[in-house]
Design brief:
single chain, 209 residues, alpha/beta, four-stranded mixed beta sheet, three-stranded antiparallel beta sheet, 42% helix, binds pyridoxal-5'-phosphate
């Protein structure tokens, strides 16, 4: 069982107690909690629960909060027994193991805590700015614990808005799936990028009426 928390594409964080219930109720399954976005949440990781549950694996990545997607590195927390099994099979699945450059970058990127915290805080601040500006335009945004937001404007065709934004070189994501097909998933960029997005949405809304 694999559960992303915070979730994608909603960006919603499922409380620790709820996740713990799922882990506890499924002792026969390995439960993998994918915490790719967890550093953008207030509640944080459940990694410490590996000491309590033998069936829990928590995975994280250098690709998001650590700004090092290019080095292709992730890591897992689990009890020694499960880690031993992962160690045993990992070379069969991934013959390109961690190279020296990656190792050096990861330990330096991982150790530069001040830079890490300042990047995460900057994204959280811009996330609040983006959510606020969208709210002024009538958008309803899921409470985000990630570096993106999931938002909708119920009285507007967000698929058409998505297509319009593309023609203005503003790229957000849209999923043609039931229940979420009037939502947009928007990555938190810089404040300047938010301003461009909001300007183009305003242009669209003016044209659409
Ligand atoms: C980005 C991401 C990952 C990790 O991706 P890598 O770049 O391959 O480390 C895992 N799960 C989710 C939900 C993600 O968004």
């Amino acid at each position: 069982m694999v559960i992303p928390n915070p979730n994608a594409p909603t960006a919603i964080y499922e409380p620790k107690a709820e996740i713990e219930k799922i882990i506890a109720a499924n002792p026969e399954s390995v439960v993998i909690i994918d915490e790719a976005y967890v550093d953008f949440s207030e509640e944080g990781s459940i990694a410490e629960l590996i000491h309590k549950y033998e069936n829990l694996v928590v995975v994280q990545t250098y690709s998001k909060s650590r700004s090092l997607a290019g080095i292709r590195l992730g890591f897992a927390f689990a009890n020694p027994e499960l880690i031993k099994i992962l160690e045993g099979v990992k070379n069969s699945f991934n013959s390109y193991t961690i190279n020296t450059v990656t190792r050096i970058l990861a330990s330096e990127g991982g150790m530069d805590k001040a830079n890490f915290i300042s990047c995460v805080e900057k994204i959280k601040k811009t996330r609040a700015y983006l959510t606020g500006e969208l709210s002024k335009l009538g958008f309803e945004t899921c409470p985000s614990s990630a570096n993106f937001i999931f938002t909708t404007k119920p009285d507007t065709d967000c698929t058409a808005l998505f297509e319009y934004l593309k023609t203005k070189n503003v790229y957000v994501r849209h999923f043609d799936k039931p229940k979420i097909n009037n939502y947009l998933r928007i990555t938190v960029g810089t404040d300047e990028e938010v301003d461009i997005l909001i300007k183009e949405i305003k242009n669209y809304l003016e044209k659409a009426v």
